[in-house]
Write a structure and sequence with these properties.
By secondary structure, this protein is α/β, with parallel strands linked by helices. Helix content is 36%, strand content 20%. The protein folds into 2 domains: 167 residues, Rossmann fold; 223 residues, Dihydrodipicolinate Reductase, domain 2, CATH 3.30.360. This is Glucose-6-phosphate 1-dehydrogenase. Catalyzes the oxidation of glucose 6-phosphate to 6-phosphogluconolactone.
Length: 513
């Protein structure tokens, strides 16, 4: 009898063709991203039979390693992710992993040295791949431009015949509008837009892609998806972890830059854009850009009034004592970096005029949950109320991105009995109940799409710049120390002032659960 895993692999194979052969070059191969996400994602793609027999990985890093040392380091991480005797964890096939490792190589090199690129050019000359390559920039942002320029100077971005060359660029893409513009300009001087794959890993999440399916494959949702029926929308990305070992990065970044113009705006665009003419990459991206362009530009006073910044102090998260942000190693004792942000936005277009969008994200909160809450308007006339204050909660649709992935609809039902009494109930769809989902990192789809040349889930230059433009009023309003940063206890739901942001509009956040 076929194993479940074989069946799954077979299903995937039937659904998607094997990606064309190429060399997958990782700049920054010894870093965390490669070990924790990229290699596990490549393992999963190998497991699902989606990588060509002539696919290979070439890691580039500063450390003076050889192929075996590199493989040893990857092996160690894989063992941590899949301890050999762990019970109940996802099954791990050592044979598949060995197969991938045998095709994984290492090149020592300085990212700013032309010799690295000469050596790379030789390694790419593999007849079986036609020289095609993905250059994955898993490096700190300061290297994005130098690596791309050097790839170009060495002639490594030239395409022709069946040979393609693509660059994947991680976030953060710039730290504000001018820097993102500058980076786009310098990259586009040497590479074509079609070669650039600006990644946002939220788009690799099945639940994020499902937003489009929920909206555009189900007439019941889309017909109510507008200002006539929707009171407001909340988008939450709450994390229970603190800044962990990333304080050097986080101190310079803060919650707004880290999460809003990228991850939260991708969710916003998915939930609020107009239906694209097709699911072709440019059709989808054009609609997302139109939505970002329609975010109302607030004055500095409005931006201050419509935003709340917070920073966590010590507290208990899931019973574990967490140090305050300012006590974290590498954080200034008087740091003004926000670890929480809540914003109220509006969209200047026909569909959403007058519908507020409340966004919030933060670290060291009570729970990890990413969700989009669609709060519908109250029923036109309250037939069943017993007093003026006795108002049933409005219908709510929750798109639960993670964890407990699903879609939940909360509505009122009659409590059985002779009298008319109502109570909120819920209709729940959970992915896990309906689909057998193979373990994934979220990077599989994105890597596969890049190799097959499908840019739908990647951002164009305009997308990135429009997102930075939309957060500019907040960045400007907070410049020069304007606007307070409110403390919140680690393990709480965030600062009180964020509750106030909605309360003054007569609304409430969906509890973090
Ligand atoms: C990253 C941010 O882009 O996304 C992190 O830099 C954040 O600070 C992470 O923790 C959240 O991603 P996920 O997939 O764990 O929700």
């Amino acid at each position: 009898m076929e194993s479940t895993q074989n069946l799954r692999t077979d299903m995937r194979r039937r659904q998607a063709p094997v990606a064309p052969p190429c060399t997958f070059v990782i700049f920054g191969a010894t870093g965390d991203l490669t070990r924790r996400l990229l290699m596990p994602a490549l393992y999963n793609l190998t497991r699902d039979g989606l990588l060509h027999d002539d696919f290979s990985v070439l890691g580039i890093g500063h450390r003076p390693w050889d192929d075996n040392q590199f493989r040893g380091c990857l092996d160690q991480m894989m063992e941590e992710l899949h301890p050999p005797h762990a019970e109940g964890g996802p099954s791990f096939d050592a044979g598949i992993w060995r197969n991938l490792l045998s095709r994984t190589f290492y090149l020592v090199g300085d990212f700013e040295d032309a010799a690295t690129y000469r050596a790379l050019a030789q390694r790419l000359e593999r007849p079986a791949t036609g020289g095609s390559a993905v250059f994955y920039l898993a490096v700190s942002p300061g290297y994005f431009e130098p690596v791309v320029s050097r790839l170009s100077a060495a002639g490594l971005l030239e395409q022709g015949g069946p040979r393609w060359r693509r660059i994947v660029i991680e976030k953060p893409f710039g730290r504000d509008l001018p820097s993102a513009r500058e980076l786009n300009q310098s990259i586009l001087r040497v590479a074509d837009e079609s070669q650039i794959f600006r990644i946002d890993h939220f788009l690799g999440k099945e639940t994020v892609q499902n937003i489009m399916v929920s909206r555009f494959a189900n007439s019941v949702f889309e017909s109510n998806w507008n200002r006539q029926y929707i009171d407001h929308i909340q988008i939450t990305a709450a994390e229970s972890i603190g800044v962990e070992r990333r304080s050097a990065f986080y101190e310079q970044t803060g919650a707004l830059r880290d999460m809003v113009p990228n991850h939260l705006f991708q969710l916003l665009a998915m939930v609020a854009m107009e239906p694209p003419n097709s699911f072709a990459a440019d059709a989808v991206r054009t609609e997302k850009e139109k939505l970002l362009e329609a975010i109302h530009a607030q004055t500095p006073d409005q931006a201050l009034a419509n935003s709340v910044r917070g920073q966590y102090r010590a507290g208990y998260v899931n019973g574990r004592l967490v140090r305050g942000y300012r006590e974290e190693e590498g954080v200034a004792p008087d740091s003004h970096t926000e670890t929480y942000v809540a914003l109220k936005l509006s969209i200047d277009n026909w569909r959403w005029a007058g519908v507020p969008f409340y966004l919030r994200t933060g670290k060291a909160l009570a729970r990890r949950t990413t969700q989009i809450v669609i709060r519908f308007k109250d029923a036109g006339h309250m037939l069943f109320r017993r007093s003026a204050s006795d108002k049933p909660p409005a219908n709510t649709l929750v798109l639960q991105i993670q964890p407990d992935e699903g879609l939940f609809f909360h509505f009122e039902a009659k409590v059985p009995g002779p009298r008319i009494r109502t109570r909120p109930v819920s209709m729940d769809f959970r992915y896990a109940d309906h689909f057998q989902v193979a373990p994934s990192t979220g990077y599989e789809t994105l890597i596969y799409d890049c190799m097959t040349g499908d840019a739908t889930l990647f951002q164009r230059a305009a997308d990135i710049e429009l997102a930075w433009k939309a957060v500019l009023p907040f960045q400007d309003a907070w410049a020069d120390g304007e606007g307070r940063i409110y403390e919140y206890e680690a393990g709480s739901h965030g600062p009180e002032q964020a509750i106030e942001l909605l309360a003054r509009d007569g609304r409430r956040w969906q509890p973090l659960r």
